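Case study 2.
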Amino acid sequence: MDALRKALGALSAAYALIFFCAALLHTGLPLGPLREPVIVPATIVETLCGLVMLVGARGALSRRPWAWDGLFHTHAGALAGVLMGILAMAFGAGETTTLNTWYHRVMATLLIAGLAGAGYVSRVRR
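Prediction:
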């Protein structure tokens, strides 16, 4: 389980970086060839998701006693943010782009997998 904790911690740090990049894109700042429309609520939610994922990564990688619970809750919180973005796009609250659609689908899938892994270990530990 130690390998899974380390993997989820490293992935959480990578997801935080992805969330921060997405937040920058939604401020209107292009990152290389990537450009997204300015969407202030998306910037706020993605920044919060990135911060949450950093907390989970820190807990997992520094072997805190709350690491597994932290990974579970941070993945759940970030997934809630991604699902809000998917719903906002579905209801036409913002401009929908191919990159944005792809980003939300991939992040939702990855976060669900991480949530399942952290949930499995939390259940096995009981």
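The chain has a mean pLDDT of 93.
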